[in-house]
Write a structure and sequence with these properties.
The structure is a homodimer. By secondary structure, the first copy, chain A, is mostly helical. Chain A folds into two domains: 1-77, Multidrug-efflux Transporter Regulator, Chain: A, Domain 2 (Orthogonal Bundle), CATH 1.10.1660; 79-131. Helix content of chain A is 63%, strand content 3%. Chain A has six helices and two strands. Chain A has helices spanning 5-12, 16-24, 43-57, 62-73, 80-112, 123-128, and strands at 32-33, 39-40. In chain A, strand 1 (32-33) and strand 2 (39-40) form a beta hairpin. The first copy, chain A, starts with a helix and ends with a helix. At the A-B interface, helix 3, helix 4, helix 5 and helix 6 of A face helix 3, helix 4, helix 5 and helix 6 of B. The structure holds a DNA duplex.
Chain lengths: 131, 131
DNA sequence: ATGCACCCTGTAGCAACTAGAGGGTCAAGC
DNA sequence: GCTTGACCCTCTAGTTGCTACAGGGTGCAT
């Protein structure tokens, strides 16, 4: 089953530009070309790109994905490194949630303190202004 | 009280480069200069930069801050616009928290399913791989 | 043969900084 | 008065993960 870049894109929910970008940064290997110089992809590329997209949806960075792909190629290797990578990412996500939750509380408090009126007496502006 | 860029930076927790950047994009007005062509800042700039930094800490974008600054200059105006801006930002933060929480659950489940062994049988890699 | 959808390369843009090169200024200490 | 070091200046380019052109070529149907 041979695909053009557009077909592969539709199959994985990726724009053609993004696929070319992944190729440029070495996340996808340069594929073979058709007569008219079109990129042509098969099952292997479909699998690899699906992996990348699923990992992106889980918030992994392209560098982390590069590492995951490399690790996944060596099927005999201990998967502790993979585990560590995923745990590190989870920790990062949890830190972000904590940060945003703190932010949310502050914002909500600020908004609750505003009871309308003019900007001159606005508690939101006041909360941001000089102490 | 006259300050150089470094002093202003220390007072507001901002790097000199960032202050110059804010000036370049028009968030801070170009300050007067000393004999040796050094930027010199006073209380007004300190207040404005503090406002910017506090708003950044609350996650407002520079464009939102630009709007807030403009609104805050017109003390007689109704503060409804300010309120709407803050509420919009809060909604955005809450959406991000929801997204990240969903992510966290997926990641945690993926990690929990991995019981060690080799990459070949790793559930994490499997979860990312082809269906 | 001509339209249209698709493909190609290459470059520039987004947010919000950060880092560096290559130089000038200023105050203190000797 | 001269050096040393900390600071300042401008300008450019890098970061992340794409996205959006511009200016062309290809492939298929009518």
């Amino acid at each position: 089953m041979v695909m053009t870049i557009g077909t592969l894109g539709k199959a994985t929910g990726t724009k053609a530009e993004t696929i070319r970008y992944y190729e440029k940064i070495g996340l996808l290997p340069p594929p073979s070309r058709s007569g008219g110089n079109y990129r042509s992809y098969g099952e292997a590329e479909l699998g690899r790109l699906s992996f990348i997209r699923r990992a992106r949806q889980l918030g992994f960075s392209l560098d982390q994905i590069r590492a995951l792909l490399e690790l996944s190629e060596d099927r005999g290797r201990d998967c502790a490194t993979v585990d560590a990578l995923a745990r590190g990412h989870l920790a990062e996500v949890e830190r972000k949630i904590a940060d945003l939750t703190a932010l949310q509380r502050e914002l909500a408090a600020m908004i609750a303190s505003c009871h309308g009126g003019t900007v001159g007496s606005c508690r939101i502006i006041e909360a941001l202004g000089p102490c």
